[in-house]
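Progress against Task 2.4 (sequence-to-structure conversion) is shown through the following example record, which the project officer requested during the mid-term review.
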Amino acid sequence: MRKTAAIPAIALMLVTGCSAEAVESGSSSASAPAPAAPSAAAPSAETAAQDTEEATCLKLLETDGKGPLYNAIHRVQFGGGTSGFQGTADDARVLQEELDGIAATAPHTLALLLEGLVSPLESVAGQAADPGSAWNFNIDIWKGAVSGLLSRCAPYEASETAATYTVFPGTIARVVPGYPGYPLVVDAASLDYRVAAWYDGRLVDGRVVALAPGLYTPYDPNIPDLLAYYVPAGTAGDTARKLTVFPDSSRGGTWSGVLPGTQEPQL
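Structure tokens generated for the chain above:
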């Protein structure tokens, strides 16, 4: 993926005096009027079409966790010594084209992150062309791209602003007994990299409340009652766990396979 930036060109006019022949002949001529100062050049079509960070993130997130950013994170699987793309080469091609289209008008820093995000998809295309080739990509670059995009886009997730902050009826009585040791306060640094990135720069003191294994919400030191945090707004973590704790809530801010952090009871 390549992003280009067009810079409008400003024409420069060189104003000369009378010709040498006119000077030698002594003929007089009216001075040419001074050229008008060039007006400010209008931005090129490509520059004018560049999206804001918010517009780019809304394209990546869409609604209910169904945007291409969520899709890419879901389909690229790694861990336990294995990695792979969950889908066909055509699935990878379609997703890459969608992400490339978003990157074409994204702010430069987001475009660079998107370049890292599509790298596994490009590898899938290479495999399709040469079935004998290995599926290969740099996991560190991928995780860095995912973390950067989640951190930048999290504030624009619709579920962050539209969800209710009222405790669901019966949630505490239904949920808490099923998860011994929860709720508890943990450091965000102890969490799955996707959740940690989602909350990056948005926590009061770098801590979250673990509501259930792999499900979290920001901690506020001024609200010490941990049972007050059982509301869907602001939660992030494992998709299946969130839908278990908060049925019919948004899938925004959730991903598959989010395991408990190192400071939580281990499953």
